[in-house]
Design a protein that fits this description.
The chain contains one helix and 20 strands. It is mainly beta and 274 residues long. The protein folds into three domains: 37 residues; 107 residues, no CATH class; 99 residues, no CATH class.
């Protein structure tokens, strides 16, 4: 009887071990097949308001962030920071008629931020932007804009007078009017629906201008890349160009006036004007 009891216990233990192994195998398979849940980090949104009484220039110095500039519905300047932290990283100071915002440096502020800046609806004075790394988007602002960009794409829609100094990144302009000065080392300059004057210069990249209604003397200069201009037929203009190495195509039916000189200099690339 003892031997039977021992055998029975061994059989029960063996069955238990087998079931345990089967359970572990099934559990492991389910874990492998089931989709992994990603850790979700919710972004915090911080908003700051500033009065601009007697302010003639708003200045921003971004280190490593993306920024969007719009016209707000309020009398005050509103800045929204969209990030994964709850600290506001733009420090403000006012000196005479200028209010300046400077982002903390990389060591204090290692994460990329996103800012949305709403200018007061009645603010018509200067906007100055300095950018380290990150995209900049501006829409609906007719103020004078001064921009110095190190690296990142720049997009502007429905804006006024612009002065852009760029190191690396494409520049896109749409529905612009006034005096536009754009200079970049590496990147394309693309402008659509322009009323006014453009002076564009690049070292490596194309200059592409469409629906250009010329209101004064303009200049385009490129080292390596194409220069393509589509002139509004109502424009009065004349052309002076030089092209060291590349094809030149100019429509004989445009720019036969004595007004508004277009000066074009290209070293390597095509010049096309129609």
């Amino acid at each position: 009887m003892k031997e039977k009891s021992i055998v029975t216990k061994i059989l029960i233990a063996g069955i238990f071990v087998v079931f345990l192994l089967l359970f572990l195998i099934v559990f492991s398979l389910i874990k492998m097949i089931a989709p992994k849940k990603e850790k979700v980090i919710e972004k915090s949104i911080i908003s700051q308001n500033y009065s601009l009484v007697d302010i003639e220039n708003i200045s921003f110095d971004f280190k490593k962030s993306a920024s969007t500039f719009l016209v707000g519905e309020w009398e005050e300047l509103v800045i929204v920071q969209n990030s994964m932290e709850e600290k506001f990283y733009l420090n403000s100071k006012q000196k005479k008629n200028t209010i300046s915002f400077e982002e903390d440096n990389y060591l204090i502020n290692p994460q990329k931020k996103e800012y949305i800046v709403y200018l007061p609806k009645n603010y018509l004075n200067k906007l100055t932007i300095k950018n380290g790394f990150g995209e900049i988007s501006i829409e609906g602002i007719i103020n004078d804009i001064e921009m110095n960009n190190n690296s990142g794409k720049i997009s502007l829609n429905t804006v006024g007078n612009i002065n852009i100094q760029d190191v690396s990144g494409d520049i896109s302009l749409k529905n612009v009017q006034g005096i536009i000065n754009v200079s970049t080392s590496t990147g394309d300059i693309v402008a659509e629906s322009v009323l006014g004057i453009i002076n564009a210069e690049t070292i490596t990249g194309d200059i592409l201008i469409s629906d250009f209604h010329i209101l004064g003397e303009t200049s385009f200069e490129n080292v390596s890349g194409d220069i393509v201009l589509q002139i509004n037929p109502e424009s009065l203009c004349k052309i002076n160009y030089s092209n060291d190495s590349g094809k030149t195509i100019i429509d004989d039916n445009i720019c036969n006036s004595e007004f508004n000189m277009i000066t074009i200099k290209n070293i390597t690339g095509m010049i096309k004007i129609n």
